[in-house]
Amino acid sequence: MAPATPVTLFYGTFVDLPRTKSSSKHELSIRHGALWVSTSTGRIAGSDWSITSEAQLQSLVRQHGWPSTLRIIRAREDLNEFFFPGFIDTHIHAPQYPNSGLFGSSTLLDWLETYTFPLESSLGNLSKARTAYDKVISRTLANGTTYASYFATIHVGATNLLATLAHTRGQRALIGRVCMDNPSFCPSYYTDGSAQESLSATKENIAHIHSLDSEGKLVKPILTPRFAPTCSPESLSSLGALAASHSPPLHIQTHISENKDEVSLVQSLFPDSESYADVYDKHALLTKRTILAHAVHLTQTEMDLIASRDAKVSHCPASNSALGSGIAPVRQLLESGVTVGLGTDVSGGYSPSILEAARQACLVSRLLRHTQQHSVTLAKEVKDGHEVLSVEEALYLGTRGGAAVVDMADDLGGFEEGMLFDTQLIRLGGVVPSSPLESELGSPVEKNDSVVDIFGWESWTERVHKWVWTGNDRNVRAVWVGGALVHSSEDKFRAGNGSESFLGALTGLVGGQDWLKYIAGGVGVGALGWVLGRKR
Amino acid sequence: MAPATPVTLFYGTFVDLPRTKSSSKHELSIRHGALWVSTSTGRIAGSDWSITSEAQLQSLVRQHGWPSTLRIIRAREDLNEFFFPGFIDTHIHAPQYPNSGLFGSSTLLDWLETYTFPLESSLGNLSKARTAYDKVISRTLANGTTYASYFATIHVGATNLLATLAHTRGQRALIGRVCMDNPSFCPSYYTDGSAQESLSATKENIAHIHSLDSEGKLVKPILTPRFAPTCSPESLSSLGALAASHSPPLHIQTHISENKDEVSLVQSLFPDSESYADVYDKHALLTKRTILAHAVHLTQTEMDLIASRDAKVSHCPASNSALGSGIAPVRQLLESGVTVGLGTDVSGGYSPSILEAARQACLVSRLLRHTQQHSVTLAKEVKDGHEVLSVEEALYLGTRGGAAVVDMADDLGGFEEGMLFDTQLIRLGGVVPSSPLESELGSPVEKNDSVVDIFGWESWTERVHKWVWTGNDRNVRAVWVGGALVHSSEDKFRAGNGSESFLGALTGLVGGQDWLKYIAGGVGVGALGWVLGRKR
């Protein structure tokens, strides 16, 4: 027998969304069995869905010649645990995280002035930036986000810090230094001095990220013109040219058609362009690696243009509702051939959770039939609910959709062999009543546990639906990126002391190679133990 | 000095919404000081907002001649704790709780057939009913709901059990046996045999509740014709007459204008009525003690009729979005003089939390401007955002609004002297980073804590906004109804051993009188201690 490839073995229930064309009906794939991940590549090396018992599992281990030190992570059936692909947040503003929940009754343009620009400008202070960025990475990981496309600020130092922190914590990320040089639409206290300054600062940030992660395995740069009104035509053009000068071309992210007043503003600022989308297209910013956030008020012509360039859309329903922007017509986008993922848009969005974004995507799609827009553009579909997103479809957008948006559809979003193991372990909890003392004690006895109530008669599909509608970060027990554990809500995942016996531990620490102390912050390692992050 | 009235003393930050006319702008009242509650009546006996220190607090105690056994409950400033009025859920279906999160992509009428009637009919089984009702009471209390207006099922036994459980657990509640006798719109397996059977079963339930709580201090009956299509005209009339035959008249609850197809159905079923609201009015069911759930598609004429009868509306935004029903025009209702409260509408609504309902009320009010309905009826207001509900307004609806809906506006919803002390203690948590090890350990260190992140620079108003947008049941540390502790997430609240020293404990158990073992379920009291419920 050939020497076995070092792997970690995962055993239990695996739920994902099979990759399909956008026009197909999405259904959950629910499989029980074993899956193993190469510890060197972090990719899925194989799976066997015929394994249904511990005896078969042991037989599988012997058959592969895996060593006695093999780590096995089990999803507990009695606690309704399952493995699910990590969420991909295709649009999030890291520096705005401290403002989560603060927006009053404002809409986009006054929200920027009142809440957002003042906070972002203050993140030039590296200490403040570190506090905010540590927290947003902690919170997104705790919510199962294995990949985030971050807007940072205009500050090179703080943006570099965000890249370093994501890299050290082991979160896959695109990191974008925000470009905004149009003095008419940027506050005087928070603006790039010129298109040239904007470009050279952006290049500094790219150089830092490339020095941090030369192969872009975990963290990559993304060009980030804030949105058309804050950028001079010169700046837009130079960023488009910069993207194309790299091989492969650099990622690009910006905003589009979030708010009706914004659309009018762009029309007045760029009278020579046929549309908002055309502004970006004219400056070579509509590419297959471009993420356009929002896309609430696009015309069909713009959707067709975006589809023809294979540019991607980040749907941010929580933010669109919170700021009263409107409801993005996701079905129309998909049927126009546009690839769509989900974004939290923190802090226009109030939540760092893609599960919440999936929930909101479902909700607003159910309200779409009541909008003016819908009655005009989709009259034929008003009656059949065609525009409604199912739970399965929302989960698809949050995993496979997001993977395609960040141009990693072959690498992320599911459990196929060869894919990177970016995964969350979800625990719904035991069947109600979880204890015969439930009635006596009320809810305190379960204060640390799931609020997803499983009564025992639900199918696996129904259990997943309950998770989507009533679950939260409490249900995320562990998160892996590229096979490395990057978050756990349980001490036993963090032990890292190699004490797990062969087939012994119900759960255990994956990997075991090169775990490093967290040093980016200059903070010493305390008594509480190991760090959830792997240097690579 | 006269002998002091036995009280419990509460000290810290108190947040509520001052009682105002519906047309006024709502603002938070944020006060720091001491408030005391009579242990015999459960009502607020006094308050002193000049108390700002422990020394002043001790002076207050001496001045009142309170004994050394006085219990003092402190809200911890360092953990951003505050007292807030208990939430009032004006519309919730207790038997549907196990279906929370299960509705697929259905709308009202097919949802009833597919998901709801089968589950409700199964609750005739008392064991199953007990499991569901225990859980829904636990979950609503844990989310700060001190008063719930419950729909039960058609079963007298199970409905009586719900009343007993709410009473024993100490939750204030209206309990309604559902009436549905129209064979054309009730499934054959789940229907009252006739209007007469419906009426007599309802009377049995009323008798049980009156025997349980003769003065209606905690639990009261509420007449519950499901909605017009499921009830014969004879049944509607007899319920209207039954309500009027009591003094004061019995409470009434039903549904109205949730869904457009439902509105059309009612028009066809009651051709002699001018409108859906008129159907209820013709049967004497529109009274000042009537709760109408949903009210999404009312005409202005119907709103005027409802206002003239002083009937109330329960706004259930999570449900209305989940089932695609539409967006209730809350501003228009309020300006028409209709009293509005919030409802979770479990399980059309997926969440048992009124905080979530408040959040959803804010969100959908921000989308209202994009609806067809809004553009027609409120054209003049489209531009000014007049229809948008502020966070403060949503909290008002969830407390004061709900109190008015259940006809207890003088007793519940705020901290005025003489009001019943139905209150939640909210903990947002310490300032970020909560520990210097945060960066090293990621979020696991705070796994049991709040996900509301306070950075230290937020005003109290902003902290409350963060709670509304990002908080959940983890922030509810304790809940009192009529001064009695009915839920706590902390063991120290439950100790109940009288060990708190004078001014000693940071937190402690209120009351101390007649705590009883939970016996309704026939379950023995286990080792874990006392029961969160007070027999009265």
Automatic annotation (TrEMBL), chains A, B:
The UniProt note on the cofactor reads as follows: Binds 1 zinc ion per subunit.
UniProt keyword list: Hydrolase, Metal-binding, Zinc
Q: Which residues form the Amidohydrolase-related domain?
A: 84-486
The protein's annotated catalytic reaction(s) are: guanine + H2O + H(+) = xanthine + NH4(+)
Q: In which pathway does it act?
A: Purine metabolism; guanine degradation; xanthine from guanine: step 1/1
Q: Which cofactor does it need?
A: Zn(2+)
Q: Does the keyword Cell inner membrane apply?
A: no
The organism's place on the tree of life at top rank: Eukaryota
InterPro entries cross-referenced by the UniProt entry: Amidohydro-rel (IPR006680), Guanine_deaminase (IPR014311), Metal-dep_hydrolase_composite (IPR011059), Metal_Hydrolase (IPR032466), Metallo-dep_hydrolases (IPR051607)
User: What are the EC numbers?
Assistant: 3.5.4.3
TM regions (residue ranges): none
Tell me the function of this protein: Catalyzes the hydrolytic deamination of guanine, producing xanthine and ammonia.
Which PANTHER family is this protein grouped with? GUANINE DEAMINASE
Q: Which family does it belong to?
A: Belongs to the metallo-dependent hydrolases superfamily. ATZ/TRZ family.
Protein name per its UniProtKB record = Guanine deaminase
